[in-house]
Amino acid sequence: MDTGRVPELPRRLVDPRPVVLAGFLAWLVATVLVWVNPAWSDARPVCVMGLVVGALGVAIWLGQLRSARRGDKGAQVGLDAD
C-alpha cells in the first residue's frame, strides 16, 4: 500500500478566476441578447438570475479569500491567499 503524498495540482488548474469570468461573461452576453430580441423575452428572468447567482458566488468566494488571508479558523482551505 502506497502512503505517499499526493502531488498538488498546478496553480493554473486550481485558479477559479478564468472560469468565473467566462461564466459571468456568458450570462452577460445571454442577458443582452434576450433583452435585444423580443422573441426571447421569456428567457429574461433566467438570464438575470444567472447573473445574480454568479454575483452571489463571487461574493462568497471573495469572503472566503478574505478569511483565508486573515487566517481565520473557519476559512476554506487551499485558497491562494497572496
Give your account of this protein's structure.
The chain is mainly α and 82 residues long. It has a domain at 16-66. It has three helices and no strands. It has helices at residues 11-14, 17-36, 44-70. The protein is elongated and about 60 Å long. The two termini are 36 Å apart. This is DUF2530 domain-containing protein. Keywords: Membrane, Transmembrane, Transmembrane helix. InterPro entries: DUF2530. The chain crosses the membrane at residues 19-37, 43-63.
Average of the residue pLDDT scores: 85
Instruction: Please summarize the sheet with the most strands.
Output: none
**What structural class is derived from the secondary structure elements?**
mainly alpha
| N- to C-terminal distance | 36 Å
Q: Work out the radius of gyration.
A: 18 Å
Strand content: under 5%
Number of strands: 0
Name the helicity range: 55-70%
H/E element string?
A: HHH
**C-alpha geometry:** elongated
Count of DSSP-assigned helices = 3
- Pick out the low-confidence regions: none
Organism: Nocardia rhizosphaerae
Keywords: Membrane, Transmembrane, Transmembrane helix
Transmembrane segments: 19-37, 43-63
Protein name: DUF2530 domain-containing protein
